[in-house]
């Protein structure tokens, strides 16, 4: 039986955000890779399940302030990276981090990424009282991701494909 991992994103105030269970695929120099085949589910908080029609893999880098999800076709967004606190492994079966609102996305077939949710980041920065270090790390991570994705750096260029193939057929 495959190793299952509970993935828990929270907001800065501790509120449960996106959460799911994914299969551990392995590790490489970029971090830990988890995946779900087509039909996998996630939840926003305690809401109803959201079904992913296509396979996807998630990368949890070591000591970085982001996570990334890579989606199989036909999903329009092939890369969606969340700016987060560094992922923390509470056990081999659970990873958790705080979602810091900013996101970097790349649409399938496009070269340039887009920075999303700057307004939400500005609002939550005040509402939740993000520390100066949190703001600096989140901003620096978003800038780094934008540059790395635009430059075609790994793992954003193609290193993820090996992992995506492992879940693409269910």
Quick recap:
By secondary structure, the protein is α+β, with helices and mostly antiparallel strands. It is built from three helices and eleven strands.
Structure write-up:
- The protein is α+β, with helices and mostly antiparallel strands and 170 residues long.
- It is built from 3 helices and 11 strands, in the order E-E-E-E-E-E-E-E-E-E-E-H-H-H.
- The protein has a 7-stranded mixed barrel.
- The model has no long low-confidence stretch (mean pLDDT 96).
- The average pLDDT score comes to 96
| Global geometry | globular
Helix percent band: 10-25%
State the low-pLDDT regions, or none.
none
Distance between the termini: 14 Å
User: How many extended strands?
Assistant: 11
Beta-strand residue percentage: 35-45%
Report on the biggest sheet: 7 strands, mixed, barrel
Q: Rg to the nearest angstrom?
A: 15 Å
| Spatial order of strands in the largest sheet | 1-2-3-6-7-8-10
* Element pattern in H and E: EEEEEEEEEEEHHH
Structural class: alpha+beta
Tally of alpha and pi helices: 3
Question: What is the topological layout?
Answer:
Elements: E1 4-10, E2 16-28, E3 31-36, E4 41-44, E5 50-51, E6 56-60, E7 66-71, E8 77-84, E9 88-91, E10 94-107, E11 114-116, H1 118-127, H2 132-151, H3 160-165
Parallel strand pairs: 1-10
Antiparallel strand pairs: 1-2, 2-3, 2-4, 3-6, 4-5, 6-7, 7-8, 8-10, 9-10, 10-11
Keywords:
170 residues, alpha+beta, 3 helices, 11 strands, 7-stranded mixed barrel, single chain
């Amino acid at each position: 039986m495959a190793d299952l991992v509970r993935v828990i994103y929270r907001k800065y105030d501790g509120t449960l955000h996106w959460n799911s269970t994914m299969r551990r695929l392995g590790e490489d120099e970029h971090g830990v890779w988890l995946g779900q085949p087509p039909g996998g589910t996630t939840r926003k908080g305690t809401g109803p399940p959201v079904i992913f029609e296509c396979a996807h893999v998630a990368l949890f880098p070591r000591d970085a302030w982001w996570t990334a999800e890579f989606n199989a076709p036909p999903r329009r967004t092939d890369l969606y990276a969340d700016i987060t606190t560094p992922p923390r492994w509470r056990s081999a079966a659970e990873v958790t981090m705080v979602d810091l609102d900013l996101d970097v996305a790349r649409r399938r077939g496009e070269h340039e990424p887009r920075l999303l949710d700057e307004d939400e980041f500005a609002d939550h920065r005040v509402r939740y009282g993000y520390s100066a270090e949190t703001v600096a790390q989140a901003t620096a991570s978003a800038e780094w991701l934008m540059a790395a994705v635009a430059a075609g750096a790994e793992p954003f260029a193609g290193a993820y494909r090996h992992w995506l193939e492992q879940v693409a057929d269910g």
